[in-house]
Amino acid sequence: MEGDCLSCMKYLMFLFNFFIFLGGACLLGLGIWVIVDPTGFREIVAANPLLFTGAYIMLAMGAMLFLLGFLGCCGAIRENKCLLLFFFMFILLIFLAELSAAILAFIFRENLTREFFTKELKKHYQRNNDTDIFSSTWNSVMITFACCGVNGPEDFEAIPPYSSFEKAIPEACCQRELQSREGMFVNREACLLGSERFQNRQGCYTVILNSFETYVYLAGALAIGVLAIELFAMIFAMCLFRGIQ
Q: ∠ CA 139-114-222 to the nearest 5 degrees?
């Protein structure tokens, strides 16, 4: 009976580690996509130190889970006590780090409010100055998502244009045939003169929130699932460690 229990524990340990291996592979792939994505998301991440750090933390966590899942599978099948103990300690460290990150994200969630982004835009935005990373990033966001400002074109009323020809709206808010920097304007002159027909009128906060709402819930569910799997994997690792003679 004890041998059958140990054998069952070993295969359950292997199964949980296999899921950790898959979760690590997903995080690793997502982290790589965020960093190398050519559609403009990379520039958003690069301009925000918190997001930039988070992307690399996600990449590192994915690589570590990928490796530990593989080692955990090997330790379970080979019944290696040293490998199982090594696996348990590292999974515990990762588990605590992920809990700390979740707590920090909850504490600093106010930095992602509409009011915060509106204040930062009005304070730092320099229109078509592509040498300024903040302005260049905002222009890329507005072009990519076909939006304007945080709430709408009214956000730029306090930011003076570069010439008397232009109205308050920046060039990045003008409609394009293709949503990229290389895309041709539908009618640039009419847009800058104030014709709403050729302007993107919806604010970026709402557009981006709607675009990523599904993925945010999916990422949250995935994170909870990974934490639960890690917890069970630690329990099985210790039970298997104690059962190996």
A: 90
The amino acid at residue 152 is G
What span, in angstroms and rounded, lies between the C-alpha atoms of 93 and 82?
17
- CB of 94 closer than 8 Å to CB of 65: yes
Query: 């504490």: which residue's tokens?
Result: 107
DSSP assigned state of 111: G
**Burial per residue of 121-130, b for 16 or more beta-carbon CB atoms within 10 angstroms, e otherwise:** beeebbbeee
> pTM value?
0.53
Which pLDDT tens digits describe the chain residue by residue (245 residues)? 455 677 777 777 788 778 878 888 888 887 787 777 655 555 555 555 555 666 777 788 788 778 888 877 877 777 777 877 888 888 788 788 877 877 776 776 656 678 888 888 888 888 777 778 888 888 888 988 889 988 988 888 766 654 444 556 888 899 998 877 777 888 888 888 888 888 998 999 888 888 776 666 777 777 777 778 778 778 877 877 787 76
SS3 annotation, 156-189: HCCCCCCCCCCCCCCHHHECECCCCCCCCECCHH
Amino acid present at 15: L
Distance CA 174, CA 188 (A): 6
Q: Per-domain residue ranges for the chain?
A: 1-110, 114-202
Coil vs helix vs strand at 199: strand
